[in-house]
Amino acid sequence: MSASPRLARPRAGLANRRACAITHAALVGLLALAPTACDPPAPRAGVPILLFAGNGTSPEDVAAVERILDDGQVGYATATSRQLNRMSTSQLAAYRLVIVPGGNFIDMSASLAPRTTASLHDAVQGGLNYLGICAGAFLADDGGSAYNSVDLTPGVRFGFYSAERRGIRRAAVAVTGVGAPSLEQYWEDGPELTGWGAVVGKYPDGTPAVVEGTSGRGWVVLVGVHPEAPEAWRRRVTVTTPASVANAYAGTLIRAALTRTWLPHY
Asked: Of 64, 124, 168, 232, which alpha carbon lies 20 to 30 A from 226's?
């Protein structure tokens, strides 16, 4: 690569140098006062939900959850991994619900400092509610020494739904609830939630797809499927349940997590 010619600059006069110095000082002052992209989101009145949108999350799923929240007119803030890593337990506890969407839970785990997952754990123990969707459910389990988790299910680590063992990575699966018709939901590399909480919905093989329960004083809802999936996702597989019905169920799960409401369970 050839070097670019350097342009000669005329020497500034004394007045110009003073003006530049004053402008620079003012700019530095403004930058010191301005929030940066790394600053944690400041809790605002009427914003009860913090949505994690950091490394490892699926941007498509973040957008899908945002659409459900917007449709329900529920206030929320988002946090990147760097922002979440700068939040204290008390800052997290200022929210009523944290939502961790789908994506890659190993990458999520790697992007968060151990003190961050510990702060999130402590905030939930103190009363913050937690909704984990797919990867967000994996991140909530007991990762032990395998990965850095929030550890809301002590002694319980989730495995993948049985379709994974048959080489299936995405599918439409029927989720059955108590006294309700089965709803086909979009599933992609999601967990089977055996061993923790009350079972709200079951996969076709009878294993838990949706669970709820308490962790300390916090209310936790974990979901192995994607009821929030937009129409574009549903074209990847054949899903018979209308998107509007599935998305309404996603809204129900969010409200239940936010308001600490028991859903019908087995």
From this structure: 124
